[in-house]
Amino acid sequence: MSNSTTAAPGFSEPAGPMSDRRKFLMAATAGVGAIGAAAGAAPFVASWFPSERAKAAGAPVDVDINAIEPGMLVRAEWRGQPVWIVKRTPEMLATLDQVKGRLADPDSKAAQQPEYAKNATRSIKPDILVLVGICTHLGCSPTDRLQPAADWQGGFFCPCHGSVFDLAGRVFSGMPAPTNLVVPPHKFVNDTRLRIGEDSKGA
Prior knowledge:
Number of strands: 9
Number of domains: 2
Strand order of the largest sheet: 1-9-8
CATH class of the largest domain: Mainly Beta
Helix content: 10-25%
């Protein structure tokens, strides 16, 4: 009678210290674990950023303004509304005084606006203008016409009913729009980042 034991059907003893099959199983288990950990971390990392629903409800939106060239307009979105950021040149800023006598509300007194919208440039920093890109007449979106031409100093024009705004978003007299374009709450996080939807007072 032999003292040797018979291996279970379909199973063979390892050929060495660690069989190829065992190595494969260990690697596969580690890989599945890594995938599981990454899948679990993804919702956690995503929670650091505002969701689309939070943005629509008014969560602040950060915009990198470092790459905006002088004379350029870039668009963002906050509360489902278009927001314009314009980097005005010294020449563009010089037009603001030139058209003041032709404006319906040059000091933005007719509608509730942040205090930093009630100065000559309607802005925190003179060169950076931030506006909600919606006409205050019936909600159309004006087009930007930033470059001067003939008797036009540059600004915004609403094609729906003809309202005209200057390079600070102030409406000209006699236009259908009753008030200036809205300046949303905003602040500068640093020299290169603008936060729309929040200002120094926490608005």
